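G., the chain you wanted modeled:
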Amino acid sequence: MSQSQIIYDFLAKSGNPAADDLLNLALTMSEEPYKSAIFETIIDRGRTRSSAGIISEFHLMDQARQSMIVQRAADLHAPICQAITSQDSKARDNALEIISRSRDCRLASALVLLLKSGNYHFVSQATLILVKMVDTYVTENPFWYINQKLEVVEDFDRQIASRGSTASLTEADKRQYLLAALKESLECFLVHRRTELIPAAMMITDARDELFWKFNATTTSPVVDTVANLIGHEKRAKLAYFICSALKFPKLRKMVLANLSGKNSPDFISSLAVAYSALKSDKEIIRWLKSVKDPVWLNAETVSLAGITREQQRLVIDLVQDIGADQGIKAIWAYNSLSHSDSHNAFALIGMIANPDNNQAVEMLKNINMSANEEIAFEALKHIIFLKPSDLLAIVGKQLSSKHVRVRELATRVYQKGAFDIFWKKFEKLDPHSQAVSAKAIFKLSDESHEKWEQQAASQDSANRIKALKVLKNAGLMEEHLETLIRLINDRDPFVRSLAVALVGQNGQLRSHAEEVLLRAANDKDARVQANAIESLDFIQSKCAVGVALQHSESDIPRIRANAIRVLIGHHVDNAWLLFRKMLGDKRPGHQRSARWLAQNTGIFEETDTNH
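Predicted structure as tokens:
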């Protein structure tokens, strides 16, 4: 080893301040390659005494050495701070140039020194550089808040020192350096450029960070006022997380709600969705997000699912689901977004469309049910069934021939297991033709329909028993439920008895089983039951029909008398015409009306004119 090398090694390792002077002298007098080695040594030492010359002469250096200083700027923290506060304007300008080009967050504290100076020019430059530092950091880490700790760490400097000089900085470390500088800038002295520094702080911290912001304090401050004003107007995507977190604070909430309801860019909404995913564990934020009303940005153009990943789509969908917009508007957005969604996320969109508060839900779902994608078509049909529209049977009926196997199976199961309940509920709202067609289909496709009908026929509510008889009439299944029909002929409700008697008579095949109960019913205390029994005995071709009719042919009750005479006329009983003429001439208006009805509905005039 040469003598010069020994001297150089000694100076490089020496802590004696005199070594700094000798290294600077050696830098001036030496030639390459020693000059570059000494230059790097001075940077490595990072001492104010030895490095001051490097900073003051920075503007005179070649590009290579300037780049080395910029890359190693954090190692020159002490001399840079000295240059910034010195009276040497060139050294101060060089220090600013180095910080500006480096944008190393560890130098943020050096900029605070200029902010404290009160000199407008220096404050403006320092503010600009500090904001650029933050902007660079956030650009590189657009969603830092998902994984990073949110609070300012009070003992951060001690933690960094304990790691040793060779430890590399984490993303959280970089953020802490920036936050520390911004915190000191905003709280320790008056800052002329507050409206530029506050947004920088908002980009990298949370409104809930009590060590940084004092939004819960009872007193107001210029910082709080500035934040509130910024929240009301800011549309930068980088501030979306802060704005969302600010929903927690009454002082800021009004401006946040105004912001989130107004016009916003796609980038802002996309970032808001990511921010919300990190904040939704806070129930208060969720609650206040729901109070956002009629957001003008909620449309498929501003909030598009096209061109983003499945995970990003899910975050956007979650945001729209929880935002306080009209369900119909949400449904329209979901419907228009369906074609751009991942198949997995399509289910969430269909669920949003199927909200009971959406008046267009069923029509939208019917269109989705026509999808070529079997899973989507199946999901749409599931939600239609859940909503139970009045025309559910017609909708499901069309899907019995669907090209999708699962859709066909589901439609069939609905008929087999649930259709009777739906049909029962909607029966009286259907037109007569639909009542008949649907009743026949229900009993044909599902054995359970017979069981459920029997349950309704045994209901304690007479209205249900009456409806059950009407359903059975439309289905034409009197023979299958004869036992129940006969039981209902003895029902405590006269209207039920009369309807049951009428139904028994509509099937001639029931003669051997029904004749006995109809004979008893012909003497029922209720006039409608008697009248229907007389008619039903004739319909089943009972041998007793004429005899019973003769017994009631001069009844004081018009309907019974009319039905009895009609039976006698139909069997060509000799005195039937005289009985009819007598009823027609009866002075009682009810009997006259019944006689005229009998004439109009049985063709008695034509028949009697021929025979008499």
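Residues 405-426 form the longest helix (22 residues).

Shout if anything looks off.
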